[in-house]
Each structure stands twice: as structure tokens, then as C-alpha cells.
């Protein structure tokens, strides 16, 4: 954008701020919903900053993340560059929400949305204030890089302009000092899976001393596979939302001395009755003694991510890496997880990306099925 256009943007911004001040002086701030703030102030602000709000490939509303929908994502040439999380006029940016009984601040919410989308920069705003965070800091306060009140939008316009499309595209935004503290989301998911395996292995070894290492490996993997399938089913709407967590809460509220594994077993039996799949058929893992607090810790890990929103490429790569780690027994009798390239080679554990699968299918079955007009004709052609 030319200097003249930038000056024009400053003029439009002054009008937008004046409009807000009129609302505030009339005492009508509380009548504006989040959607009102979005349509009347945030989108016009993005427009002033040079973003094409009419292009869904550039400014997209309600982008799904692993935790919920981010209000806006801003992209350049289809690459996500900024996440925008907004609040109502009356909501302070240091406010919080309760997520599964845990207090989560708005900065934590915003930075986690961006982190799950692998976007470094996130804007948190209620229009009265704009904050820019780097999502790769564990503590949002450490990642706060810009903070401007609406009363300074005009006087600090050069700082605000860092959020413009021009500044983002030219790399000006990325010149702000930053230091990644959090691992990539893919690595975090892998670490979560390995931690679940470690927790299960330890509690099963201690509480079920008659099991061999091979028995422990088999039972751990069976339980993990089942829990992951249940979580995927929740996230994809096949079964009720947060079924596992609700069952855990119900068990806690009953206050009975029975282990939670018994309640979990009933979920496994229901899956077997309804879906008749080998994964959920009767298995010794259902009757193992597993500490209640371990299962609760495992649920906390599983609910950090929405598996429906993790692409098959990412899941495949993560699972390949996960299976390349094996459970071994120490001389002390404890179990440990170690990375083993030999195990991966021995079992042929290598993920095949979707585009290669599609190519293989086209090059084999695709040629066989060319010219087939009916199932019978295709069957005859294939058999011949």
C-alpha cells in the first residue's frame, strides 16, 4: 500500500474510533454482542488494514481448531498468517472461561487456538484494546508483543500497521523479537501418546504383577486403541460429546468404591454390541487393575486435542513415529519406552501419504476398471 493509501487508512480509522466513542458515551456498549462487534468494528478494522474481507480464502470466519472455532484467520496465498480472537466490548481481555472445570484465560484461549493451527501470531481484541501474542510461548504474558488502547490507535498507527496485510506479507511483523518455547503441535500429540503409554504401562505392571512384558504391551496397546477410537467417535459426532469425561464425572459423583475401569468396561461393551468390531470384543484388558487417577490423567491428555481436526497426514506421521517407540523392561523390573528404528523396520511401519495411495489405486485398479459401466461388467473384466 502506498503512503497516500496509508494516510487514507488513518482517516478511516479515525472515523471508526469516533463511531465507537459515540456508542460508549451513549452507554450502549453492553447492547453489542460479539457478532455485533465483529461485523461493525472488527471487519471494518481489518478492511482498513488492507485485508480483503470479501475473500474467504484471505479472511475466514470460524476456522475450526483442535479446541474450538477461532473467530477469524487471515491468510496470504492460502498460508495462514494471523489468528484473530475477539470478545464483546464489555469483556476484559484478561477475563477467563471455564473449560472442563479448569480456568482458562482469554489470552490462553487465543494462543492455544493459534498454536493448534500452527500459526505464530494471534490477535486478541474487544476493539477497545488490541493485543498481539506469539503463540509459541507457554505463558501468554511472555509472548505479548503489542498492546494498544483504542484511544491510541491513531497516535500509534505505525504499531497498529504491523497487523496490516502489507506488513505481514513483507515480513515486517516477523521482525518482532520472538523465541519459540512450545513444540510443534505434531510433536506435542506424539508426546501425549507416549505419556499415555507410559502411564498405562506403569500402573498395569504395578497392579497386575503376574503379567509378562509382552502381556503388558498387548494390553496397553489394546486400551489405547480403544480410547482413541472412542475419542474420534466423540469428535466426529458418532457418539455423544465428551462421553468419556461425562462417564468419569458420573463415577465421581456416585462416590462408590468401585474402580473407574468398571465404568470404562461398560463403554467398551456398548461399542462391541453396537459396532461389532474386533477391537472391542471381550479382552483381558477390561479386567485389569488400573489406578483411577491414571485413567483421569489419560483423559486429560486425550481431551487436549480434537482428533477430527487432525489431518490424516499428521495422524499417520505421528502414529508411525509412535509405533517406532517400544516398551522395554529395566533390570529393576520397571518398564521404559525407547525409540527403536529396528522395530519400525522389522514391522514395516511406514506411513503412506494419501496422494501416493491415490496414485497406486489409479495405476492398478483404475486401469482394470476403465470402461466399466456396471458392477457385473467390472467383475467380469477383473476376473478375466
Can you describe what's shown?
With 384 residues, the protein is an alpha+beta fold. The protein folds into two domains: 3-175, tt1808, chain A, CATH 3.90.1570.30; 185-353. The chain is built from 14 helices and ten strands. The strands form three sheets. A six-stranded mixed sheet has the order 1-2-3-6-7-8, with helices on both faces. A two-stranded antiparallel ribbon has the order 4-5. Helix 1 (3-25) packs antiparallel against helix 2, helix 6 crosses helix 7 (213-235) and helix 8 (243-254) runs antiparallel to helix 9 (260-275). The longest helix is centred in the first third of the chain and has 23 residues, at 3-25. 24% of the residues are buried. Mean pLDDT is 84; it is low at 380-384.
Q: Give the H and E element order.
A: HHEEEEEHEEEHHHHHHHHEEHHH
Oligomer state of the chains in this structure: single chain
End-to-end CA span: 65 Å
Which runs of at least 5 residues are low in confidence (pLDDT < 50)? 380-384
Shape: globular
The CATH topology of the largest domain corresponds to tt1808, chain A
Tally of individual helices: 14
SS content category:
alpha+beta
Amino acid at each position: 500500500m502506498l503512503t497516500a493509501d496509508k494516510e487514507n487508512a488513518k482517516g478511516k480509522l479515525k472515523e471508526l474510533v469516533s463511531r465507537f466513542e459515540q456508542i460508549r458515551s451513549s452507554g450502549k456498549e453492553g447492547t453489542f454482542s460479539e457478532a455485533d462487534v465483529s461485523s461493525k468494528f472488527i471487519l471494518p478494522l481489518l478492511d482498513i488494514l488492507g485485508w480483503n474481507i470479501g475473500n474467504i480464502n484471505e479472511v475466514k470466519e470460524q476456522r475450526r481448531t483442535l479446541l474450538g472455532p477461532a473467530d477469524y484467520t487471515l491468510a496470504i496465498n492460502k498460508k495462514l498468517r494471523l489468528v484473530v480472537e475477539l470478545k464483546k466490548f464489555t469483556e476484559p481481555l484478561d477475563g477467563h472461561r471455564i473449560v472442563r472445570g479448569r480456568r482458562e484465560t482469554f489470552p490462553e484461549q487465543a494462543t492455544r487456538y493459534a498454536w493448534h493451527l500452527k500459526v505464530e501470531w494471534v490477535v486478541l481484541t474487544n476493539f477497545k484494546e488490541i493485543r498481539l501474542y506469539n503463540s509459541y510461548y507457554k505463558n501468554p504474558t511472555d509472548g505479548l508483543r503489542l498492546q494498544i488502547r483504542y484511544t491510541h490507535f491513531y497516535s500509534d498507527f505505525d504499531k497498529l500497521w504491523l497487523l496490516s496485510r502489507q506488513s505481514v506479507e513483507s515480513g515486517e511483523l516477523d521482525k518482532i523479537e520472538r523465541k519459540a518455547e512450545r513444540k510443534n503441535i505434531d510433536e506435542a500429540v506424539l508426546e501425549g501418546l507416549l505419556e499415555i503409554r507410559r502411564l498405562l504401562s506403569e500402573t498395569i505392571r504395578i497392579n497386575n504383577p503376574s503379567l509378562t512384558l509382552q502381556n503388558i504391551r498387548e494390553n496397553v496397546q489394546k486400551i489405547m486403541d480403544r480410547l482413541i477410537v472412542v475419542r474420534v467417535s466423540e469428535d466426529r459426532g458418532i457418539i455423544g460429546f465428551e462421553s468419556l469425561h461425562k462417564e468419569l464425572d458420573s463415577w465421581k459423583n456416585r462416590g462408590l468404591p468401585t474402580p473407574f475401569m468398571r465404568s470404562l468396561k461398560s463403554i467398551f461393551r456398548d461399542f462391541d454390541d453396537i459396532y461389532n468390531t474386533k477391537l472391542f470384543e471381550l479382552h483381558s484388558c477390561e479386567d485389569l487393575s488400573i489406578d483411577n487417577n491414571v485413567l483421569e490423567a489419560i483423559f486429560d491428555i486425550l481431551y487436549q486435542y480434537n482428533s477430527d481436526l487432525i489431518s490424516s497426514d499428521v495422524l499417520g506421521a505421528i502414529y508411525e513415529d509412535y509405533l517406532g517407540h517400544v516398551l522395554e523392561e529395566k533390570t529393576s523390573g520397571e518398564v521404559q519406552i525407547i525409540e527403536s528404528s529396528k522395530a519400525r523396520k522389522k514391522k514395516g511401519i511406514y506411513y503412506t501419504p494419501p496422494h501416493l495411495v491415490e496414485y497406486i489405486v489409479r495405476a492398478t485398479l483404475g486401469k482394470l476398471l476403465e470402461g466399466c459401466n456396471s458392477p457385473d461388467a467390472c467383475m467380469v473384466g477383473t476376473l478375466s
